[in-house]
Amino acid sequence: MTKKRKTALMSVYYKTEQVYKDALELRANGFTIYASGGTFKFLKQNKVPVKDIAQIAGGGGILGNRVLTISRGVGAGLLAQRVEKDVKEMEELGFPYIDLVYSGLYPLQEEIKRIGSNEESVTKETDIGGILLIRAGGKGRRLVCSRPGHLQKILAWEKLGRPNEKVFLRELAADAEFVAADYSLTSAKYLGGRKYEGLTGEIFRICKYGENPFQTPAIVYENNLAPQNPLRHTNIVKVSGDDPSYNNSYDVDRLLYTVTKIAATFDVNYGKVPFIALGAKHGNCCGVGISDSRSEVIKKMLIGDHESLFGGSVLFNFFIEKEGAELLLNYASDGNQLKLDNVLATGFSEEATALLERKKGKCRMAALGGLATLGKDSLDCHPNFKQLFGGDFMVQPANNFILKEEDELMVKYGELTRRQIDDLLLAKCINDSSNSNTITIVKDGKLLGNGVGQTSRKIAAKLAVDIAQGAGHDLKGAVVASDSFFPFTDALEILINAGIEVVFAPSGSINDKNTIQLAHNKAVVLWMMDYKICRGFLHR
Questions:
Q1: pTM of the prediction?
Q2: Has residue 507 got a pLDDT over 80?
Q3: Torsion of CA 65, 68, 70, 72, to 10 degrees
Q4: Which of 45, 257, 301, 412 could potentially form a cystine with 277 if both were Cys, beta carbons 3.0 to 4.6 Å apart?
Q5: May I ask the CATH architecture of the domain 6-192?
Q6: Alpha helices in 193-341 (DSSP H)
């Protein structure tokens, strides 16, 4: 007795070699294939045995082929159940039971992003039939191939004898609904302008817990609507140590924000990116260095606020060899090796990995190749989402302001050397990526003190000075960046008395004239720009 063949329905936008191979594999695994319009022609031209969906749909495509798979026969084939009543009715109607849906949707997102697209072209590339197929297939608990790779997963499952069938089909249905939701959200955001906003995400990593042990579960999701980016968290590859926690992921994210600011700023101003080393605690930098030398940049980062760096996170835009690992552990130590929680670089040698490892995997080492190609195009242009109490949320554009030395809007009270300009640019980058209020002190390409998250500019200035002096740094000739204007002269007086000779601050205070006069009286170089353009507030 011949085994009854199963039925598959294929309908894809892109007719690729992979679609051809998958069709052959379906045939080899006992499926009769029905296909729609262009997919039918493509498979027939390539000698794949295939039937026209028009046989089920009651005719070919109508209204310029906009209506084909939206039909009684296809809907019945996907939603009929394997019960006596449905089986009998399907036989009377002559409709086949469709076991598998293989769908590839119209490229809506690509069309929206295409230069020259308009509402008419976007509407044309908005799939309806494909969405119907995968949602109906999911509801009917069919085998739904809604994304690349699904078919191989399905056929492998069938070869195993279809274990845990109910759970497996539910997972496929969830995938189909997610793809449809993702697609529909894209369409709603385009048509509605700013009226609608949202995120869709697929689970990427389950953390042990959140910010605190009792905040469980904590999950990192991959945003499927986000464009490909070499610096995304999903591209980070674990080298050694435990899986990242919620806090680890947050710290790494802040470091990525900082390093891209620095790289873009130096690329825009000089056309090149230096070696960069960052050290942070709770997302805020406590050590930063830039240099043309890998070893020198590590040293600069370590001698910032070394005490705070203990148990912190570090990032490098270069490969870590044995020498670099030894410097990390011992250069600024007081006899006790530095303990780190996160080390992110473009890669690690085996010797470096062995040196940096800690008991119980507490030092998490990870590689991110995209760090090797940082530049002006590395900035994250995604809108910033902030969840509010009760579940509402706010959205704002990304802060991708880059300070340019020759910006015509820059007001300069005094001239700077090339070294001082470099330090000013670096200080501004660190300042912009630290929790406000912030005062940042930099000298010779290294961070000396970062007074972050304070309730007043005066306290932020005092904290930055205290941190720098507490670490043994000489502040004479150092450069300061402030994330907003000085409302009074008290904070500037603290900085000048500590030896600061260069200050960058946004303008906009009613007391700017007093700030400018004080800087002039004390022979301090002051560069300013309107706060509406360059203010660097950050709340993360």
A1: 0.89
A2: yes
A3: 150
A4: 301
A5: 3-Layer(aba) Sandwich (3.40)
A6: 246-270, 294-302, 306-309, 322-330
